[in-house]
Amino acid sequence: MMTEGSDDAPVYSRELSVSFGYQCNVTGPSISSIEPEGFDFLNSTMIQDSCMKMSSSFSCLSGAALSANATLANTNLCNGLIGEEILPNLDSPKSFRRMASSPSLSRLDFTSSSSYSSFTSLGGSTPKEKDFAETLWKSMSAPTRTESSTFLNTMEVQMAGGAAGEDRVQAVCSEENGWLFCGIYDGFNGRDAADFLAGTLYENICFYLHMLEWNKKKQPGSFKSTLEGENVTLHIALPDDPGHSNSEMEQAKLPNYVDEEFPHENYSSDIISCLNRALAQAEGDFMYMVEQEMEDRPDLVSVGSCVLAILLYGDHIYVQNLGDSRAILATSTIQEEGVLKAIQLTETHTVDNESECNKVLADHPDDPSPIIYGRVKGKLKLTRAFGVGYLKKSKMNDVLMGILQVRNLCSPPYVYNHPFTMSHRVSDKDQFVVLGSDGLFDFFSNDEVVKLVHLFIQNNPSGDPAKHLVEQLVERAADNAGFSSEDLMNIPAGRRRKYHDDVTVIVVILGNKQRTSAASAYL
């Protein structure tokens, strides 16, 4: 394993924008904190004193990202706080770092206007719910434990993340309580939307999960007014594998609760609803701030981002995606023992997806050309995305001039902000999950990604599979262009976008088995 700064390290490895790794220290409350023999987790952190409250379904993870786009300085959204304060705190490419788990949204000036009003309107319709929302909202900046039994109730978390071109990546882990959150935000037309997501989405999710727990404990049944009627997609198990029980993909309508506690079997639906509400919150806040600045910065109305977020807790993976980033599950099958099958846990929200294309056409019957030259209104291949206000609101399109403005924006929105969400129960057959921005899948199919990771893990028990995927992508991109890898990486960011996109990868190893693992950071 090459160490940081090694003269022998490949150029493309030394140029990685982000590389981090983490391995769980224990597999359950009965196992003492013992460092595995041969552990060589470079530039990373192990928790030596934790005793998890429940067994986690993941053992380690690694992340890597490589930039291709040159990005401009951050705008004045949030008075610059997103770029100047939040991201550097998250940007720890050498390791995970221990941080207080209390959300810190209150340091952003926008909370006094858009966010707080949105939280109270989305968070509850009864006076008591609004009082709780106000109390919790005001307490989110305090470094204290929120009084709740939720699994997010922890004083400290391990956090890592960073930026690669217009991509943003973050991972938050509580080994104490056995959960992991990962987010990949693939920005386009600028970095502002991805910056905003990196600074707010996780904390929004914390807020709504705390609110859910509060409603469950304090007022059984009262949360029905805010959850009732929301449709979510629940992926209970893999539909084509008889080794998984209850295999089905179904639309589940959240049940009514009147005078009883939330049943445990319905908790997956509740968590998914919290993920959806957190993203809707972030979208509303971002669009509000774009409206405040669009007269001076009309380019902001075209800024957007894809969203890929997973929450792994206990034996469930909760997935949320908006756009064309992917989460791929590698699982073994009964029919072919030892052979891993790639299962895509996300949808692809582009016009190349026939169902997405048909939806855009069906939603705009009076528009003769909702899709032009394979793009929504001739501008964007994505059919669902965060931000990109000029394809959602006429007044945002109106601030653009000349060829930048969309002609005949008859019936917006043309790009949607409702995500695909699902949950999957992790089985003994599930080996790992690969999260990637679309830059990864420009070069590799789902099956190729799973095969590359599987072979690498088998042959390199102390290696970093995320970094390996990025290195393989560089080699393939260079080969396609007729360059050596070194020649390709010597091309400056911006010009290199001709040969590959920004690429971000996270690999999460599932199961409770200890695995000797390592991660490197090259700056």
UniProtKB/TrEMBL annotation:
GO molecular function: metal ion binding; protein serine/threonine phosphatase activity
Keywords assigned by UniProt, alphabetized: Hydrolase, Metal-binding, Protein phosphatase
Occurrences of domain PPM-type phosphatase (ranges): 151-510
Classification via CDD domains: PP2Cc
InterPro entries the UniProt entry points to: PP2C (IPR015655), PPM-type_phosphatase-like_dom (IPR001932)
EC primary class: hydrolase
Keyword Zinc belongs to the record: no
EC number(s) on file: 3.1.3.16
Keyword hit for 4Fe-4S: no
Protein name per UniProt: protein-serine/threonine phosphatase
